[in-house]
What does this fold into?
Amino acid sequence: MSHILIVEDEPVIRGALRKLLVRHEHSVAEADSVEQAREQHLNQFDLIISDLRLPGEPGTALIDSAGATPVLIMTSYASLRSAVDAMRQGAVDYIPKPFDHDEMLLAVERVLKEGRLNRGNRALRRDMERSYPVHNMIGDSDAMQELKHRIHRVGPTNTPVLIMGESGTGKELTARALHEQSERAGGPLISVQCAALPKNLQLTELFGDEDSAGRIEEADGGTLFLDEVGELNSDVQSRLLTLLTHHEIHRQGSLSPRKVDVRILASSQLDLPGRVAEGHFRQDLYYRLNVMELTLPPLRDRQDDLQRLANALLARGCEKLNRHDLYFTDAAWQAMVGYSWPGNVRELENVIERAIILTEEDGIGPSQLGLNPNRTPQRVSRASLDPSEDLSLEDYFTRFVMENQDSMTETELAQKLGISRKSLWERRQRLGIPRKKAGSRR
It folds into this structure.
């Protein structure tokens, strides 16, 4: 649902236009002058429809004040000159009065559609700046076939989906597949990394403020993906519940609700039922999000997919780094099969990219991969720990970070662990491992 401001000094015309727009499921606010319109924080609207001739300033005066919000001008003094002047000043369109209902609705829908496409293009540009392991879901193992089947079934619906899985298993890639399977595929997919948002900025970032839209409004008409939703604070959780229940939000500092049409996808590698039991996550929100749950298999349970994945990532890495005709030796395959991949597909991508850079020959061997082919699946062996100790992955992670953070930067730590800096930050937060003090090496 779009939020539209009508600026018209004639009550009859203003009322008729309001009824027309409300009947077509738009949210409408009104003003009878430019001065009154400016009191309503113009950036909160998706479209402003203004009469040209108003008491005081003309309707075109709103164009500069509206910022990114498009302004549609209408006037009873229809003439080519006034149309050209309005468009030259930045109006998105021009409608003569008395307006034809169908013509008005077509103009409104065109402007709103362009706005949704612009939001989608901005989101796409952000996505292209990120690094994705693959651009489709590679794998034919039983676990992957079941996952693809579920995506095919739930993708076309508006049902909220909770995507569970370890770090690096492809939760964001799964969210993209769900979005592309849906009728919202032409709208934006907005991804929010909740774990990276400071607690005191989560509300503003997601819900916006009086002067600017938040990420939820950017996703209007499309899909909102909340990565690591368990990291959101209680205030944000409460407002998300309102969004899921009533399909509306309040910007920070605003008393006016805004209707939004957005599908919610969420992910977590945390034990959300455990956080509910501990009082850290709302039970009602958990059940709203968990209408359908997709659990992503870790790479160690996808041995049948490992070769296809590795070859696809090798081809992608070679193209990125301008290397050609590289291949994995038999010894390299044995090393990959014998490794447990605690960082999953993301770690596999990092390992292969590093190998492409290091290898001076066409064949990539175990030394370029930097893996121990004899390690057991339950153990992590890249740190200099006592091999007789039976450490869990979390124990290993904690000890490795604590023992090496004084001599390594965060980037070096993440590379040694085979994970991203974001995953390193997330695990620090979850396991309560403090960062080094300011002034030490980053």
Remarks:
- The chain has 19 helices and 14 strands.
- The two ends are 45 Å apart (CA to CA).
